[in-house]
């Protein structure tokens, strides 16, 4: 929900700019090649016409944005300044709700849990996805590769609620996971996973890892498929091993995918709701509460709309900031760091000189 | 105009053009802000063209309906003319769905001038959408409103539900429903006092959390169903010595803990104290000696291993299903499980009230099914009241029974057998002897969250009994202003 806000906003920005740039370009061109047919036709219209037309093009998007994202966002911001149960009259409380978000141990706990989940939802899947994709690229001729690809991506296709219910069964004290542990003699490790104060949050996080890896894997696989084979051949001729190839060619080439994967998975981690709702309801105690779950509880269960709105806004802002930062890292570096081709050739040149 | 066009045209992304885009975005946002900027809860007032805040407006509304209700309550639905009655219910499961479908059909047959427009949703969907529906200018005519403070209490406080006392008098509901049942849907008119005041809804079914036991296993142990705490302790100990799981329990869903804790508390604490604590009324304390004893007792059950291993990670459903398949001698559960357990276990399962402890009474945690209420803004209130009367009258109670549910009244006079008969007897006895105590999560709007997390903490050894009780006491005293 919050993620959509950020993305749509970005999209909007991109839609707007090219429109204007293009209309600007035509103006410049008109100045340069005066007397040509298209320019003459435009001159017949009132001055500034293309620009107004551009607004017309983006109007539908702006209306949809304003109605379904802008309006609710502003309304939420309004709610967050009041104490309101969603029914009757409301009381103006200023920024008290926001202060509460950062001081209430229960809400702070929820935010902390979301940060922990980033490791499971984002860090591990991105790393795993990268490694699996790189391995598969090297083993292109292995048989049954398509099957593996499908298997790794499969969790992405299953609705999260189904995933949650299935894993809840797996984690039961008499469930398959504990059965497996006991079968291999690790009786000491068997435990009621979702009822264990230490392990409940990692257990939920692990499901996120299981789901997220597939997405990262497919992204990286697509990115790596674009890398010209010659680069690897050149590297091999230069005597670099698999590790060198990975760090010198593969990794820099998929930086864009890296940023996308990181953005998507971090957003998924911060806005987790379904898994927690289905698997633990925030328990045991409050060990697995997350911000979205608290928002739901407050808004729909306890009638604390103001505090729910404040938390939702903080969550949205966090996601927005994180997305901007991650995209900076992903896109901004492109100009400053040498691309793999350049780096390789530079090394080759150095070697030549040495000879 | 033209110059600005050129400037934008030459602008790089991220240059002035970007700034302008942002400026435009900000302008649009502030336009939206102006549109949206009014205090929440004021919209309805704008619609009705009435000044003042929401509370005042609706108060006059309900005042008017009081008058009209008081002077001329029309109890003959056939005299009401053509009416479409919109009913929002959550009777979507098995026997519950069956009974309401039958009753709706019977009602429409008896009063052809009234058409029922039924909207049924799951319990959770209903409670999340009801908030918006009730504040609408044209709300449904009959709704099932959960009797907790966070729902019915807030609706009453915002004058969104109609007090039913006038109808209760006209239809004789005060005689028909014992006070212990009625009090579960009674609030003061500002919604702050629960269990007292005016009647805001009527339930169809009752529910109690009692003790299911495995008859075969208890016979093998040579024991009778426990009637007192000593009996129960002995039975649990005997079960453990015989290598059985004494009590099957799944506390993964937080609410299950409320039932288990109530089961223990009822054996140590007197009814009045539990009711004060449950309803959030002043006069009692969570940290009293007997409450400490109850908290220590349930912790000792954990330490002794009376509960099944790993109960903190077991689902409620998994737990009762395991009990149905013969795991465990006892299971603390609600009457909503009767149909399922009877089907799975047949003659093997029995049901008794909570064993009698210190108070000498078999106090039992229980309540009512989600009561049927009338929104204050409904335009067919007489018909709505007639409908509620129809689905809770003696004939309706038979229908409720036939479809496998526990009728809230007349349970003693129904023809049932087996487990159902034991449950009906228990419910009837609880009514006659005034044994019913409320669920513990009614005390405040957020007490459910507090107590469920606290019970999980207590049973997992994360909190000592004293810390546990202090947590509850803090929220209780904040509520009663003590």
Automatic annotation (TrEMBL), chain A:
Chain segments carrying region Disordered: 1-47, 335-355
Membrane-spanning intervals of the chain: 53-74, 110-134, 146-167, 199-225, 246-270, 305-326
Keyword hit for Calcium: no
Pfam families: BPD_transp_1
Membrane topology, record value: Multi-pass membrane protein
Ranges of compositional bias, category Basic and acidic residues: 1-10
Places the protein is found: Cell membrane
Chief localization: membrane
Positions of the ABC transmembrane type-1 domain: 111-326
Coiled coil feature spans: none
Biased composition (Basic residues): 340-349
Keywords: Cell membrane, Membrane, Transmembrane, Transmembrane helix, Transport
Domain of life: Bacteria
Family: Belongs to the binding-protein-dependent transport system permease family.
Name of the protein: Sugar ABC transporter permease
UniProtKB/TrEMBL annotation, chain B:
Domain of life: Bacteria
InterPro entries found in the cross-reference section: Bact_solute-bd_prot1, SBP
Pfam families per record: SBP_bac_8 (PF13416)
Annotated spans, Disordered: 39-79
Biased composition (Acidic residues): 41-50, 56-69
UniProt xrefs under PANTHER family: ARABINOSE-BINDING PROTEIN-RELATED, DIACETYLCHITOBIOSE BINDING PROTEIN DASA
Protein name: Extracellular solute-binding protein
Lineage of the species this protein comes from: Bacteria, Bacillati, Actinomycetota, Actinomycetes, Jiangellales
């Amino acid at each position: 929900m919050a993620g959509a806000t950020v993305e749509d906003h970005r999209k909007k920005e991109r839609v707007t700019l090219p429109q204007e740039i293009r209309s600007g370009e035509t103006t410049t061109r008109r100045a340069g090649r005066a007397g040509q047919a298209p320019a003459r036709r435009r001159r017949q219209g009132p001055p500034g016409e293309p620009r107004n037309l551009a607004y017309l093009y983006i109007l539908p998007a702006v209306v949809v944005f304003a109605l379904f994202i802008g309006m609710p966002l502003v309304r939420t911001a309004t709610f967050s300044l009041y104490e309101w149960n969603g029914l009757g009259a409301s009381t103006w409380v200023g920024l008290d709700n926001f202060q509460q978000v950062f001081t209430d141990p229960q809400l702070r706990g929820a935010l902390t849990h979301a940060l922990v989940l980033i490791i499971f939802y984002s860090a591990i899947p991105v790393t795993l996805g990268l490694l699996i994709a790189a391995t598969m690229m090297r083993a292109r001729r292995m048989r049954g590769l398509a099957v593996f690809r499908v298997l790794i991506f499969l969790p992405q296709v299953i609705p999260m609620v189904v995933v949650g219910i299935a894993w809840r069964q797996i984690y039961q004290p008499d469930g398959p996971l504990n059965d497996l542990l006991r079968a291999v003699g690790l009786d000491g490790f068997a435990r009621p996973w979702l009822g264990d104060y230490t392990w409940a949050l990692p257990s939920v996080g692990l499901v996120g890892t299981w789901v997220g890896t597939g997405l990262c894997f497919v992204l990286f696989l697509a990115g790596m498929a674009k890398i010209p084979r010659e680069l690897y051949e050149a590297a091999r001729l230069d005597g670099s091993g698999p590790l060198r190839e990975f760090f010198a060619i593969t990794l820099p080439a998929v930086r864009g995918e890296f940023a996308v994967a990181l953005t998507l998975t971090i957003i998924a981690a911060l806005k987790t709701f379904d898994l927690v709702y289905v698997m633990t309801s925030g328990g045991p105690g409050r060990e697995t509460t997350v911000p979205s779950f608290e928002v739901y509880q407050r808004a729909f269960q306890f009638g604390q709309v103001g505090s729910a709105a404040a938390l939702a806004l903080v969550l949205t802002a966090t996601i927005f900031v994180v997305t901007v930062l991650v995209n900076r890292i992903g896109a901004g570096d492109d100009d400053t760091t040498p691309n793999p081709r350049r780096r390789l050739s530079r090394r080759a040149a150095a070697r030549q000189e040495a000879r | 105009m033209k110059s600005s066009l050129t400037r934008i045209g030459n602008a790089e992304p991220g240059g002035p053009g970007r700034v302008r885009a942002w400026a435009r975005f900000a302008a649009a946002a502030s336009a939206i802000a102006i549109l949206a900027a009014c205090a929440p809860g004021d919209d309805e007032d704008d619609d009705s063209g009435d000044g003042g805040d929401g509370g005042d407006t609706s108060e006059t509304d309900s005042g008017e309906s009081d008058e009209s209700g008081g002077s001329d309550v029309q109890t003959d639905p056939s005299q009401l003319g053509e009416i479409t009655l919109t009913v929002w219910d959550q009777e979507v499961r098995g026997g519950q769905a069956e009974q309401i479908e039958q009753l709706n059909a019977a009602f429409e047959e008896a009063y052809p001038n009234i058409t029922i427009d039924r909207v049924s949703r799951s319990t959770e969907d209903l409670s999340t959408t009801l908030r918006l529906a009730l504040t609408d200018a044209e709300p449904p005519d009959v709704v099932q409103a959960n009797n907790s403070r966070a729902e019915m209490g807030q609706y009453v406080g915002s004058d969104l539900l109609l007090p039913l006392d006038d109808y209760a008098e006209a239809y004789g509901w005060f005689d028909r429903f014992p006070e212990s049942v009625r009090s579960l849907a009674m609030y003061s008119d500002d919604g702050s006092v629960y269990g007292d005041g005016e009647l805001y809804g009527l339930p169809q079914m009752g529910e109690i959390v009692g003790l299911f036991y495995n008859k075969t296993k208890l016979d093998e142990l040579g024991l009778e169903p426990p009637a007192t705490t000593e009996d129960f302790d002995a039975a649990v100990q005997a079960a453990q010595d015989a290598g059985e799981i004494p009590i099957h329990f799944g506390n993964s869903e937080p609410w299950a803990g409320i039932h288990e804790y109530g089961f223990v508390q009822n054996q140590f604490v007197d009814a009045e104290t539990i009711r004060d604590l449950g309803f959030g009324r002043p006069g009692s304390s969570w940290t009293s000696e007997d409450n400490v004893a109850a908290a220590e007792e349930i912790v000792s059950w954990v330490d002794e291993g009376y509960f099944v291993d790993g109960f903190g990670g077991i689902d409620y459903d998994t737990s009762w299903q395991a009990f149905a398949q013969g795991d465990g001698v006892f299971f603390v559960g609600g009457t909503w499980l009767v149909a399922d357990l009877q089907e799975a276990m047949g003659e093997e399962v029995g049901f008794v009230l909570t064993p009698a402890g210190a108070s000498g009474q078999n106090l039992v945690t229980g309540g009512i099914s989600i009561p049927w209420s009338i929104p204050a803004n409904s335009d067919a209130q007489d018909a709505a009241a007639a409908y509620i009367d129809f689905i809770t009258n003696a004939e309706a109670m038979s229908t409720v029974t036939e479809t496998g549910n526990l009728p809230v009244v007349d349970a003693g006079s129904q023809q049932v057998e087996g487990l159902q008969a034991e449950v009906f007897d228990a419910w009837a006895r609880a009514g006659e002897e005034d044994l019913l105590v409320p669920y513990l999560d009614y005390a405040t709007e957020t007490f459910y969250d507090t107590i469920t997390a606290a019970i999980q903490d207590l049973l997992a050894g994360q909190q000592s009994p004293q810390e546990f009780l202090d947590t509850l006491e803090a929220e209780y005293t904040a509520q009663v202003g003590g």
